[in-house]
Model the fold of this input.
Amino acid sequence: MSNVVSLDSIFGLGQLAPPEVAPAAASGCSSSSCGSSDGPADMDPAVWDKVKNHPCYSEEAHHYFARMHVAVAPACNIQCNYCNRKYDCSNESRPGVVSEKLTPDQAIKKILAVAQEIPQLSVIGIAGPGDSLAAAGKNTFATFEHLQKKAPDLKLCLSTNGLALPEHVDTIAQYNIDHVTITINMVDPEVGAQIYPWIFHKHKRWTGLDAAKILHEQQMLGLEMLTARGILVKVNSVMIPGVNDEHLLEVNKAVKSRGAFLHNIMPLISDPAHGTYFGLNGQRGPTAQELKVVQDACEGGAKLMRHCRQCRADAVGLLGEDRGDEFTADKIEAMGVVAYDDEARRTYREHVEAERAGRNASKAAAQAEVQETVGVEAEPILIAVATKGGERINEHFGHAREFQIYEVGPGGAKFVGHRRVDQYCEGGSGDVDTLDGVLAAINDCTAVFVAKIGGCPSKSLADAGIEPVDRFAFDYIEESALAYFKDYAERLGQGVVRSRAGQDAVIRTGALTARRA
Amino acid sequence: MAYKIKSAECTVCGACEAECPNIAISLKKGTYVIDPAKCTECQGQFDSPQCAAVCPADCCVPA
Ligand code: SF4
Ligand code: SF4
Done:
């Protein structure tokens, strides 16, 4: 059995090429104090305890722990204008789309097999590809029931649209499912009618305002019932420009007042090729700044989560890294009986605890230094970081499939999101179109931190006003960002650099599922 | 008097199977089929055929 490896080796520190065997290195993500990672300081300790090792909910945990979704729930009870369930393609990476549906028995086998291979595994979720509570939630609960017996140390969670939630709250509590995600896109049926053409409820298909009204009432009731039982609830909202963008502030208020602990605002993924109603009708998704404006406005409401990459419903591995191909049904059948042993995962968790404590101290020191030299008034800037995890700047510019965006200023360095890009160096030589795509994706950033970068892209970045920075190669992201900001603020004061305030960037559709070629 | 599933459009999601009051729908060789001997079009049980009302692909139709 694989045993505990140091974080650095897990994340491929010091390697520029994607490692072949390290379990969690292909795309990675790092950093620590991403908005909701502040932990005990601004979060109820009981809540923090529940979420601290949960990669979907704690922005700190998603760097160290893995979650896995099993696709046992293909049926759905509502139709959304951003979803087309007929479309099922393995190149796809929208939520709700999986290439392989599993029976509960297959799912259990898969989970146990993965748990033996990946000690970081801490969460098992059921999110679809339909709705986990449609069709009476039969497959979902059958899976959880077995799992609770066979692997009691794994956390369980589920995602739902909320329509059938109230009738299942007692069952959810009984299986000790302590995390539920509800997708709530509106609290006003007028808005809802533009998003949901129909729902199936109480043996009937409902349309228009009636449908949206029922859905809204069920969602609010379900949310209240869960929080009343002490079950953590996260709310996901899909931001649809012109339909619910400003309305999301009201959603944020409504869900916070009912006890949701996190509110995750995701951009609409809209592409005519997906065949969704929105895709076919030219409804666009938000730009990076539009998304950030809404997320910022909701900050201080229910805590916002920004690291979500809209993973596929069957994603395996650290968030953003899809190792699903290694665990297909055929391969799992071939594995025979899988023994279960939680020793490796326990040791790994202890190791992470120790590492986190050291990091918190060094970040606080770096921030204090900035406040001392720059003051507390300076405007924060955005920095794009090429990383494959471990909270370090450890990716080559040309190998990056995504950039992590940090906002850094006197208030500290905080993770605010991801930008997907095409790999600039795919196949060995950089190509100009891809580089333009990268520039568009990080156009609102002042600098890009990389482990290494070639002369050519380096020049294009500088011409576009984005400073390529490789002097922090392999260092921790947040400390480096603060050091850079200190230097930047001085240069800004001398008029050597110009502020990039007001720039916007393009959000790439599709989630990041870094498949190894 | 029975419904049928247009198999070319069916996504094999199983939503219809869970709703049928007469256990008329089952998975046969990888696709869902309706047993016409069991299907009552839901008459006397519900206002509308349940499979058709729930199907996301709108592929449950009168035979
Ligand atoms: S019409 Fe009613 S009885 Fe017939 S298959 Fe559909 S759900 Fe079952
Ligand atoms: S509900 Fe429709 S798509 Fe789903 S299995 Fe039944 S016939 Fe097929």
